[in-house]
Amino acid sequence: MIENLPFGALRVFESAARHLSFTRAAEELFITPAAVSQQIKTLEHQLGIRLFNRHSRGLSLTDEARNGLPALVRGFESIADSVHRIRSSNRDSTLTVWMAPSFASKWFIPRLHRFSQAHPDIDLNISASPKLVDSNADRHSIPAENFYRDNVDVAIRFGMGDYPGCRVDKLFPVYAIPLCSPKLMQGEHALREPGDLRFHTLLHDDTRYEGRPDWATWLAAARVSDVDSSRGLHFNHGSLAINAAINGQGVVLSMKVLAAGDLAAGRLVVPFDLGLPLEYAYYLITLNEFSDHPPTAAFRDWLLAEAAADDDTPGVEYA
Do the beta carbons of residue 178 and residue 252 sit within 8 Å? Predict the structure, then answer.
């Protein structure tokens, strides 16, 4: 009977079926892969059928699971939509904004006071998540359920910009440039041309996402062949790599937009006039049905104006 089925296990099945991965379902639901596996086994036992075919290279859905999945997905979306609408009716002046941590700390937060001054009647809830970048598996989608489940009104995402069911506004293109402390522009091995990097530590942002700039690509564009692109210090968070550069630990290859505040304050400089345009960009995303919600529209207008004021091009030649 449906009333005896565990709702949590159905939710786990839906996530695992969408990703065809227990590991990715665990990451999405903030539980362990072992817990996902156990929930699936419990559900299979209660239903009396197998839901997944286990292969050496991954998972596939059984015919029974494949036939039932679309209706289950619609059911969860309907529940989430209803909850979202109930919550929205009582929070007309509150907006939840979801973005990647580096973008939040290096670009968004320094400008946040201007939104608060312009819209003192709107309260913002800021949620920073490393999942707000496209991966191979989800580069063309951002499930509506993510908005509903986490009660999110607006997402700012680094990706390709193809998100069905959503209004998508491009904030700005993105360029990868070397950045360093002004201290590295002086001394015996001052940075004057790309080949001088052989005397300095390379700082790497190893955050796992599609479209991430890397030293090998930049060095090739700069026609530098005698610098080992893999050496140096590696960080799992972009803002950590930028902070290491601010402290004179080496030269970081990062997105200029993330360093705008540090460049303006003189904490960082661009040692070489060579930037690398990236295929990915930052986008503001809202569900179509909520895109005209007054706080959402006010936030979008403000953010687009802030992005338009960010001139990312003077003085840099792009490869």
Answer: yes
